[in-house]
């Protein structure tokens, strides 16, 4: 009897990594000559200086506090293109709609996509629509793809990096960290996952906690304007824990993360304590984790805090050769290994 795909294998984290590396990359990842190929597993690929990313979105419920399926689909792809250091140019949108979906709900989500595309300044220029039989999918699924281009802003940012250390890559890759680089988080974590879970299950936390879904391209532009950014990644499925582990693994450098510096809202902490889940493993939809050369970290932090999406930004750690993997310096004074989660503890959040 053959093995079956499990829900956790699509939720980010170690199980999803295993599925991709063992069952997908061996067919799709070979012999690619692109500058940033699929095999690197960054948030986007680079083909002839064109940054290209795609993402499929399914979430229950379709509309939740602070966002909906439409806002996630636009912001998720805009953000994946942005974190390589590119300027997002355009999006596609592919709809798969289950027969019986409310027309009102459908229009709400499409209107939301239009709103967030305008906020990001990235138009939806092409798409496709399919309607399938009831029961074939779960209400509504959206695929968005995005393209972006290299800009002088990225060139200038890299020039600043080279003032302080050797830097050979032309993009902000997960593998770019070296000893001494600082890790900056742009704001509060876990609001998206907790807001969605609370609304879905009726826990009541949504009265105080809303999704953080937002396009981060303007935030990235401000950071690049200061210079010194070497890596960037949005902590979606698998949360902050998965993100910092990917950076550490791909860069082949240890990370020490200061738990006390991680901005976690009181309501999120309370919800996580009650539900027995780790806030560091919960997905976000409007945050970015930056690797920045030590000499520019405070300047980047300052400019982030002036942006509406970055007012709670913090330097949360640094790259070091003194540890392997990711080590969390805890609030109680000890240290523990921060493992990559098996999957997101809150299913179907994006």
Mean pLDDT: 93
In the sheet with the most strands, the strands line up as 9-11-8-12-10-13-14
Q: Write down the CATH class of the largest domain.
A: Alpha Beta
- The gyration radius over C-alpha positions equals 19 Å
DSSP, total strands: 14
Q: Do you know the CATH architecture of the largest domain?
A: Alpha-Beta Complex
Portion of residues in helices?
Answer: 25-40%
Q: What's the number of structural domains? A: 2
CATH-derived topology of the largest domain: Phosphoribosyl-aminoimidazole Synthetase, Chain A, domain 2
Secondary-structure element series: HEEEEHEHEEHEHHEHEHEHEEE
CATH superfamily of the largest domain: PurM-like C-terminal domain
Task: State which percent range the strand residues make up.
Answer: 15-25%
Which structural class should the secondary elements be placed in?
Answer: alpha+beta
Distance between the termini: 31 Å
State the low-pLDDT regions, or none: none
Please write out the topology.
Blueprint lengths: L13 H15 L16 E3 L2 E8 L5 E2 L2 E2 H14 L4 E12 L4 H18 L3 E9 L7 E10 L2 H11 L19 E4 L5 H11 L15 H10 L2 E5 L5 H13 L2 E5 L7 H10 L13 E4 L4 H9 L8 E7 L5 E4 L5 E3 L13
Parallel strand pairs: 5-6, 10-13
Antiparallel strand pairs: 1-2, 2-7, 3-4, 5-7, 8-11, 8-12, 9-11, 10-12, 13-14
Helix pairs in contact: 2-3, 4-6, 6-9
């Amino acid at each position: 009897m053959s093995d079956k795909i499990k829900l956790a294998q699509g939720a980010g984290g170690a199980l999803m990594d295993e599925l991709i590396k063992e069952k997908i990359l061996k067919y799709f990842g070979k012999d690619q000559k692109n500058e940033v190929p699929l095999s690197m597993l960054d948030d986007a690929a680079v083909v002839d200086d064109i940054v290209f990313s795609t993402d499929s979105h399914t979430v229950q419920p379709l509309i939740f506090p602070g966002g909906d399926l439409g806002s996630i689909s636009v912001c998720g792809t805009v953000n994946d293109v942005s974190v390589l250091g590119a300027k997002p140019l355009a999006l596609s949108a592919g709809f798969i709609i289950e027969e019986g979906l409310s027309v009102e709900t459908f229009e709400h989500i499409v209107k939301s996509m239009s709103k967030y595309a305008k906020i990001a300044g990235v138009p939806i220029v092409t798409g496709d629509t399919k309607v399938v039989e009831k029961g074939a999918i779960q209400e509504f699924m959206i695929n968005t793809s995005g393209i972006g281009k290299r800009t002088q802003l990225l060139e200038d940012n890299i020039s600043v990096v080279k003032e302080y250390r050797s830097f050979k890559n032309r993009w902000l890759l997960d593998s770019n960290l070296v000893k001494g680089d600082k890790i900056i988080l742009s704001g509060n974590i876990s609001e998206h996952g907790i807001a969605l879970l609370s609304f879905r299950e009726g826990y009541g936390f949504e009265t105080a906690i809303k999704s953080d879904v937002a396009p981060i391209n303007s935030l990235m532009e401000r950071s690049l304007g200061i210079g010194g950014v070497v890596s960037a990644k949005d902590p979606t499925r698998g949360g902050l824990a998965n993100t910092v582990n990917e950076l550490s693994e791909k860069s082949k450098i240890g990370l020490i993360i200061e738990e006390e510096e991680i901005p976690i809202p009181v309501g999120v902490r309370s919800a996580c304590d009650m539900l027995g889940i780790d806030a560091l493993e919960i997905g976000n939809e409007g945050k970015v984790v930056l690797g920045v050369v030590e000499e520019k970290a405070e300047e980047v932090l300052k400019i982030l805090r002036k942006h509406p999406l970055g007012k709670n930004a913090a330097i949360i750690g640094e790259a070091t050769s003194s540890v392997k993997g990711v080590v969390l310096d805890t609030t109680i004074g000890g240290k523990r290994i921060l493992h990559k989660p098996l999957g997101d503890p809150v299913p179907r959040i994006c």
